[in-house]
């Protein structure tokens, strides 16, 4: 149940920010860039599930970014955006290797649905429900129970818990949690993991189930 990572590549900043805000509300980790050159830099070093890629970009156009991803064997799925709605434009975009195509203007609900569908295709199938140490996480339904008791969690708390559950007893470092649960713009020196972990522990209740290993990370044994 790793948190889905999305890269939004859109030169119109208002549109890019609106897409990112919408997807972050759904507990996705979203990075935003505004040109193809920067997109290629991030794609070379980060593992994304989905790239929301505008076709008309400065410096390096979306077609070139998409082609480069295919040639490099990138795992990420591509949802291509364009202002053109003609059939031949959509066919051209898909022929480059894009997995899906969406014309502007679009409904954010449709974009979100397409992103989630592509993300499911980009990763190996994961168990729909995670269970460990009396905790049951149904990530799709956003439901958590401990010993049969419902535990209401915020999006980041849920994502953090899912990462610990998925590790199956292994220690997960703070750096790994920052990468998987938040996004590239998070301050690497922030204490947000510790603060979110405190909230999560409080909501899960006693006896404590999350162990801390100073300098190493956290785990659910």
Kindly describe this structure.
The protein is of the alpha/beta class. It folds into 2 domains: 5-122, 3-Layer(aba) Sandwich (Rossmann fold), CATH 3.40.50; 129-219, Winged helix-like DNA-binding domain superfamily/Winged helix DNA-binding domain (Arc Repressor Mutant, subunit A), CATH 1.10.10. Helices cover 41% and strands 20% of the residues. Strand 7 (135-138) and strand 8 form a beta hairpin. The longest helix has 15 residues, at 108-122.
Summarize the structure.
The chain is of the alpha/beta class. It has eight helices and eleven strands.
Helix-strand layout with pairing:
Layout: E1 5-9, H1 13-24, E2 29-33, H2 36-45, E3 50-54, H3 62-72, E4 77-82, H4 87-95, E5 100-103, H5 108-122, E6 129-132, E7 135-138, E8 143-146, E9 149-150, H6 155-166, H7 174-181, H8 192-204, E10 211-213, E11 217-219
Parallel strand pairs: 1-2, 1-3, 3-4, 4-5
Antiparallel strand pairs: 6-7, 7-8, 8-9, 10-11
Helix pairs in contact: 2-3, 6-8
């Amino acid at each position: 149940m790793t948190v889905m990572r999305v890269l939004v590549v859109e030169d119109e900043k208002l549109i890019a920010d609106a897409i990112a805000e919408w997807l972050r509300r759904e507990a996705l980790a979203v990075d935003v860039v505004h040109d193809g050159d920067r997109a290629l830099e991030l794609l070379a070093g980060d593992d994304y599930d989905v790239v929301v890629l505008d076709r008309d970009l400065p410096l390096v156009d979306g077609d070139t970014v998409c082609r480069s991803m295919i040639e490099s064997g990138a795992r990420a799925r591509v949802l291509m955006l364009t202002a053109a709605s003609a059939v031949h434009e959509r066919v051209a975009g898909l022929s480059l290797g894009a997995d899906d195509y969406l014309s502007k203007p679009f409904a954010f609900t449709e974009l979100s649905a397409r992103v989630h569908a592509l993300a499911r295709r980009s990763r190996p199938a994961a168990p729909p429900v995670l269970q460990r140490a009396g905790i049951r996480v149904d990530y799709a339904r956003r439901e958590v129970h401990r010993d049969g008791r419902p535990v209401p969690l915020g999006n980041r708390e849920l994502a953090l818990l899912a990462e610990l559950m998925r590790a199956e007893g292994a220690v997960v470092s703070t750096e790994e949690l920052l990468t998987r649960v938040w996004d590239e713009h998070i301050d690497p020196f922030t204490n947000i993991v510790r603060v979110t972990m405190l909230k999560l522990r409080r909501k899960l209740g006693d006896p404590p189930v999350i162990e801390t290993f100073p300098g190493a990370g956290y785990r659910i044994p």
